[in-house]
Design brief:
This protein has 320 residues and is α/β, with parallel strands linked by helices. It has 13 helices and 12 strands. Helix 3 packs across helix 4, helix 4 packs parallel to helix 5 and helix 9 packs antiparallel against helix 10. The relative contact order is 0.14.
Length: 320
């Protein structure tokens, strides 16, 4: 059994160079700003790793799908941030991590970034897999803190999924229809995660549902982008099958893109399910988030203002 940890023990951040919403990089920055040592786990010692090193993080090269590589990553850490891409493979990744943590006798506080649709009967296959991965951590006796964010959509999703069509022809097309979608900023989600990483671990596994900051339809999203950019942007409802195929084609055209077939099934299916709702899956609670964050949560309009160049017709696509 490892010895109890102190505030000088590093926090392991898995997914520190992730491109879905960039929560890992934000977690690194927020921990460092609080004076906590950070060990950032990366699969490749590339420019993104060098940037994390420049900001003060220690880098460890490891892969969740290579169990042997994880031992050095987890040794001596006080807490672990686990996030997995919106992609296939989370169950074996969780199994490898749980196996290594059990093997080394780790008492680190494991904090899991999850989603509201994490459920064994989720319409999303990724939602089902995420639920099983969380069960693996619980069965292993790791007592994880699982944060199933009620904001199913991060603000950053708009640029990832629709940035190209917004810039090229002012269109957002997907399967969400008129259903109100729950939103939260990726940065806000990361800050909430940091608060848990720095808190004492719970006595047993804890699953919570941090609320979304707001619930707005994609038509409202289009109107906000139009108002902030001064150029017309409209929303178009398409079937889940059509959107899924469009995403699959986009992912196949750019192997470096975080868009992939599993993500396409996940988001198009969730969109279709939410399109049938007249109320959001989880009610927004900006007051509760204000208490958690010690500041008001970031509204989508602010995200657009901070990223105007990335919505402009002449902008160059920037990875999220």
């Amino acid at each position: 059994m490892q010895q109890p940890h102190s505030e000088t023990s590093p926090v392991l951040v898995i997914g520190a160079t992730g491109r879905h919403a960039g929560t890992g990089a934000t977690v690194v920055d927020r921990l460092l700003s609080r004076g906590r040592p950070v060990r950032a786990m990366v699969r490749t010692n590339d420019d993104r790793a060098s940037e994390l090193r420049r900001r003060g993080a220690a880098i460890v090269v490891a892969d969740l799908h290579d169990r042997a590589s994880l031992t050095a990553a987890v040794n001596g850490v006080s807490a672990i941030y686990f996030t997995y891409p919106i992609a296939a493979g989370v169950i074996p990744a969780a199994a490898n991590l749980a196996s290594v943590l059990r093997d080394v006798g780790s008492t680190a506080h494991l904090v899991v970034m999850s989603m509201a649709v994490s459920s064994l009967d989720s319409p999303s296959r990724l939602g089902q897999a995420q639920a099983v991965a969380e069960e693996v951590f619980i069965w292993a006796g790791l007592g994880p803190t699982v944060l199933r964010f009620g904001g199913c959509l991060f603000h950053e999703n708009v640029l990832l999924l629709h940035g190209a069509t917004i810039r090229e022809n002012g269109v957002i097309a997907n399967s969400f229809g008129e259903g109100p979608a729950p939103w939260i900023s990726g940065d806000d989600a990361a800050e909430l995660t940091v608060a848990h990483l720095l808190a004492p671990p719970p006595a047993s596994a804890q699953i919570s549902y941090p609320p979304p900051a707001e619930a707005i339809t994609h038509a409202e999203v289009a109107r906000i982008i139009s108002a902030e950019t001064g150029r017309p942007v409209r929303y178009e409802h398409i079937s889940a099958a059509t959107w899924r195929r469009e995403l699959e084609v986009a992912g196949e055209a750019d192997p470096a893109s975080p868009i992939n077939n599993a993500m396409a099934q996940h988001i198009s299916t969730i969109g279709a399910a939410l399109s049938k709702r007249t109320e959001p899956l989880f009610a927004p609670d900006p007051h509760a988030l204000t208490v958690m964050l010690n500041r008001p949560p970031t509204p989508f309009a602010d995200f657009v203002r901070r990223n105007l160049a990335r919505f402009a017709a002449s902008s160059v696509t920037v990875p999220t």
